[in-house]
Amino acid sequence: MKRYLITSALPYANGYLHLGHLAGAYVPADIYSRFLRLTGESIIYICGSDEHGVAITIAADKENVSPKDIIDKYHSANKDAFEKFGMSFDIYSRTSDPVHHETAREFFESLLKKDYLTEKEENQFYDEEAKMFLPDRYVEGICPNCGNEKARGDQCESCGAYYDQLKLGNPISLISGKTPTVRKTTHWYMRFDLFQTALEHYIESHAGDWKENVLQQSRSWLKQGLMERAITRDLNWGVSIENLGGIPDSSAAGKVLYVWFEAVLGYISATKILFSGKDASHNWKTWWQTPETDYIAFIGKDNIVFHTLIFPAILIARHDNYIVPKNVPANEFLNLEGQKFSKSRNWSIDLLDFQKNFPEPFYMDALRYTLVMNLPETRDSDFTWKDFQARNNNELADIFGNFVNRTFQFLQRFYELAVPVLPLEYKHILNDWEEIVNRCNNEIEFSEKDFPELTPNDYALITALAKGINKITHCYKIFRFRDAVTETMNIARAANKYFNDEEPWATKKSKHNQSDKTIYVCMQIVRSLAILFQPVIPFTSRKIFEILSIPIVSSDATAGESKYNFFADAALPWLTDRKLISIPSILFPKIDDFIIDSQIEKLGVKTDETEAKKPVVTYEEFSKVKLRTGKIISAEKIPKSKKLLKLIVDIGNTKRQVVAGIGEKYLPEDLVDKVVVVVTNLKTTKIMGVESQGMVLAAGDGDTLSVIVPDDIGFEQGWEVK
Directed axis angle between helix 456-477 and helix 27-38, to 10°? Predict the structure, then answer.
């Protein structure tokens, strides 16, 4: 039986989560987990707090409390924030749990017995006043590589170089402020070099399905050659290695496992806790030690090698049939208003603060949607408050919310909140609908001519739904989450167009049966969209099901239990006629400018100053640009180019040849007959030897791209754009 084990990187319990964290490892993992549950798969989604290491002790020192106080504070706060944000963890555990300590110690002892660990005596900085060895983050000095005077421990934050901490110039203890001495201490090193060949084969076996940034970073480490790496530290906070077989008590005293070694084992210990007390069919080993499980590890780019090389090496070394990640879909970084997140510069938005300012569930969904549409899937991306407002107002409210709300309002006004009976003359729609879905699922070609009884509007909407679900499913499976959500919103766009073209407000007076059919179909699409949008906006999805007064289709945690494939069923009409619904309400209220401006100013950026920095053109300058609508009558790829297409565009009085860089987003055949906006007075130029007599307008952020098209299908070529 196929299973999916999903993990998100364990956040440090030394501070509050910010939006950058969410975009890296949590939002994509959650929507992927929810998607899998909706398709009926058996999955568990594991996460928890990383509660050991120097980062915790430093936070405790700053707040003048114990490490236990720190982890309790931030674990509870982050767990609560995650729940309010709609995260569907099957368990949110802690590495301070005794089960985790036991698990980590078992791994250490096993590797020791297998001779994968080497005991070494080495020199380390020692603070005579504090009477303790100094972990890397407790020492500051001059970087031996770039001369940065504030370099920490064994890595320089300025140049990124790694080095022995003893090579720091003018070292200072951050505890006492004094120059440390050097003393000998004993540590255990793992022989990662023994796994070089196995890991090379592992990485290259995924050359065709892993992200390029993941492959390249992993290959870079392998190219340098894996070396022995210390897995213990002199610290009073962590997983102790005392009282383990094969280690003298004198050597083990005061030693704990290095946090990067034991933290990843938190995924395993959390799974043990999740299934403790359950029957044998739900044993944790079913998820970690059987080949039927696909393990997907979601992380940010700063954690790549720990999940593609270090953790797999530990699992391979342990033996016992442990599985390694099948995919590690790491994201790049999310910036804030064009700059990196930085709490020290007060340039950050904590999830907790967001929830205080925007407590309603629809705001959580609006944030989830905005983050998904700006996921740094292939490069760093940006969160801006204006974009958050635009995503809510222009997409969730004006497209998805508009369709659902107008359908509900029409039902309330004319049908007493009851789904209308599908008139006899339109009963064929049900069979045709099922046949279109069947042909889409089985990749059988068809056209509108194959369904002569369907009106063009009915055919267009049903086809958009059936084909759209297949596109969405494909995008989720290859971890293209932005594309998946874009395709979902495209179905809502098609539904709005259907409502407009059917004009039920007019047919209600003269063609009552057509109006009944229109609203019947629209209500089916409302249910479908509630399912399809659920991975992204689960609170709003639940609200729609409550209004529909039908059992809620949920993608919440199931602890591995498989479910019905609701995602496939979203392609079909299931709402019965005469079904009463509850009194509806607006799904996504508009967010006013003053609310957004106040949030921007909290960051220290005044909106008028921000606008003043943008370049401006005069009306006369802009009026020189001539824009017209044009219909694409042919399109073909330009040889030796991935992006460029040669288009022939009819702009009314003439035809133009235009070279457009949209070939990675659109297939040539999908562009034919599409009405676009063209700059018609550009100087003719040649691109890759092909003459271009204009420009097709498109919008995008570097990864997502869409040509600009009129929202009214009645627009013809040659119309002036003003």
Answer: 120
Q: Is 259 exposed, middle or buried (0-12, 13-18, 19+ CB in 10 A)?
A: buried
| Alpha-carbon gap, residue 476 to 136, rounded angstroms | 40
Q: How many C-beta atoms surround the C-beta of residue 345 within 10 A?
A: 11
In a domain, 601, yes or no: no
Q: Based on the fold, state whether residues 564 and 441 are members of the same structural domain.
A: yes
Residue 682's domain comprises: 619-707
User: Residue 229: how many CB atoms within 10 A of its CB?
Assistant: 15
Sequence-distant (6+) residues with CB within 8 A of 553 are 38, 530, 531, 534, 541, 545, 566
Q: What is the largest CA-CA distance in the chain?
A: 93
> What are 633-682's pLDDT values in tens digits?
999 998 878 788 999 999 988 899 999 988 878 888 889 888 999 999 98
Q: Give the C-alpha separation, 306 to 126, whole Å.
A: 28
**pLDDT tens readout for residues 80-138:** 999 999 999 999 999 999 999 999 999 999 999 999 999 999 899 999 998 888 888 78
Angle at 384 (CA atoms; ends 474, 339), nearest 5 degrees: 105
* 614 inside domain: no
Q: Which of 414, 291, 286, 378 is nearest to 701 (CA)?
A: 378
* Domain shared by 531 and 566, yes or no: yes
The model's confidence at residue 168, banded by pLDDT at 50, 70 and 90, is very high
Closest CA to 314 of 174, 542, 108: 108
**Is 431 in the same domain as 396?**
yes
Tokens of 421: 């009976």
- Say which residues have a Cβ less than 8 Å from residue 421's Cβ, sequence separation at least 6: 516, 520, 577, 578
* End residue of a domain, out of 593, 609, 637: 593
List alpha helices for 374-455, DSSP H.
385-390, 402-414, 428-441
Q: What's the alpha-carbon Rg for the chain, to the nearest Å?
A: 29
Among candidate residues 206, 222, 257, the one where a domain is terminated: 257
Size of the chain, expressed as the number of residues it contains: 722
Instruction: At 491, list the tokens.
Output: 């179905």
User: Are residue 66 and residue 203 in the same domain, yes or no?
Assistant: no
The total of structural domains in the chain comes to: 4
Judge if 89 and 119 occupy the same domain: no
By the 8 A CB rule, do 304 and 220 touch? Answer: no
pLDDT tens digit sequence for 32-86 = 999 999 999 999 999 999 999 888 988 898 899 999 999 999 999 999 999 999 9
Looking at the fold, whether 227 and 329 belong to one and the same domain comes out as no
pLDDT in tens, 564-590: 999 999 999 999 988 899 999 999 999
pLDDT tens-digit readout, 225-279 = 999 999 999 998 999 999 998 888 888 999 999 999 999 999 999 999 999 987 7
